From TrEMBL:
InterPro entries: NTF2-like_dom_sf, SnoaL-like
The SnoaL-like domain, residue ranges: 8-107
Record key words, sorted: Isomerase
A GO term for molecular function: isomerase activity
Organism: Actinoplanes italicus
Lineage of source species: Bacteria, Bacillati, Actinomycetota, Actinomycetes, Micromonosporales
Name listed for the protein in its UniProt record: Ketosteroid isomerase-like protein
Signal sequence bounds: none
Length: 124
């Protein structure tokens, strides 16, 4: 897959809640700087983190609004709409930055306001 195909698949799998397949988009030695989780290293660390995601969110959609791809890098502005298992709403605008090598994400960073994720973090 080229960079654009990887990015499109990233959002397709996230929106389908297919977290194992989503994790497979990342290289084994991936690095991620995640606004809520901090610095993450390794696909299996990411996979372990994502196992709890369905327990946190009853619904989760991350809709890309603007995608820019340049060779092996991409930036995506998107909007997250979610609902926690306890019924709280989560709405947030997000920007993700990606580096892709040989069809896998080797680095990703996301940027967003953390306040909208309060209900998910507190289990409400």
């Amino acid at each position: 897959m080229d960079t654009r195909q990887v990015i499109d698949r990233y959002y397709e799998l996230a929106n389908a809640g297919e977290w194992d397949d989503w994790c497979d988009l990342f290289s084994a030695d991936t690095r991620m700087d995640e606004q809520l989780a901090g610095h993450v290293e390794g696909r299996e660390t990411l996979r372990a983190m994502m196992k709890g995601f369905p327990e946190t969110y009853a619904s989760f959609v991350n809709r890309p609004r603007h995608v820019v791809v340049s060779d092996a890098t991409a930036a995506v502005v998107s909007h997250i709409s979610g609902r926690t298992r306890h019924g709280s709403s989560v709405e947030a605008d997000v920007c993700n930055y990606f580096e892709v090598t040989d069809g896998q994400i080797t680095y990703m960073a996301n940027f967003h306001d953390t306040v909208p994720f309060g209900p998910a973090l507190s289990g409400k």
